[in-house]
Amino acid sequence: MSAAPIEFWFEFASNYSYLSVMRIEDCAARRGVQVRWKPFLLGPIFRSFGWQTSPFVLQKAKGDYVWQDMVRQCRKYDLAWTRPSGFPRSSLLPSRVALVGAEQDWIGAYCRRVMSINFGEDREIDTNKVVTEVLTALGLPARQIIDEAQSEANKLRLRQQTETAARRGIFGAPMFFVGDDMFWGNDRLDDALDHCVQAPA
């Protein structure tokens, strides 16, 4: 009896998605769980609530807490951390590329590198130069992948993926689904993976 797969909904601009992106493949592998990568954009979700940016920016007290918490969480998971000088950062091109690679064996390494650039190195991620740098370092045909990512068909796919996120009730990131069961936040990743094992496919 195999474990149920986990759907991993994430955003490159999301600091708590950073924590999950960096560790989900190892955590899932230890339980024999397949990860289904689901990049989407939080901006349209927030705008549907009447927000123009992240709640961590809109609510100063919450934002102040989050940056303290990220220091602790990155120390806990032994991850590099540099508070982004721009937050939340645009992530359109990296997200389109992630959608192209969602079912490829390079998706995990690609996402970890993009996240590390944003939250470990405090660099912009939504540029051709950076995405090309990441794909090339992975030994991938960067020009070909970026062209596919920027195709009208793939742009539409990302819009549809974000609409699907909204229909499923996703209000933040990271979000995990095991079947129809929703788990919100990096601190629920282990619970979600345990549920995959307890509720096998």
Features:
201 residues; alpha+beta; Glutaredoxin; 4-stranded mixed β-sheet; 10 helices; 4 strands; 9% strand
Description:
The protein is α+β, with helices and mostly antiparallel strands and 201 residues long. It has a single domain (6-198), classed as Glutaredoxin (3-Layer(aba) Sandwich), CATH 3.40.30. The protein contains ten helices and four strands. The longest helix has 18 residues, at 60-77. The termini are close together. Its EC number is 5.99.1.4.
Please summarize what this structure is.
This protein has helices at 15-31, 42-48, 55-58, 60-77, 92-101, 107-120, 128-137, 142-149, 152-167, 189-198, and strands at residues 6-10, 35-39, 175-178, 181-184. It has 201 residues and is of the alpha+beta class.
Count of individual domains: 1
Largest sheet report:
4 strands, mixed
Count, helices: 10
Rounded mean pLDDT score = 96
The helix/strand class is alpha+beta
Strand content: 5-15%
Low-confidence sequence ranges? none
- Compute the CA-based radius of gyration: 16 Å
Would you identify the CATH H-level superfamily?
Glutaredoxin
Q: Helix coverage percent of residues?
A: 55-70%
CATH class: Alpha Beta
Number of strands: 4
Major sheet: arrangement of strands:
2-1-3-4
Q: Which oligomeric form is depicted?
A: single chain
The name CATH uses for the topology is: Glutaredoxin
User: Could you say which overall geometry the principal axes of the C-alpha atoms support?
Assistant: globular
State the distance separating the first and last CA atoms. 7 Å
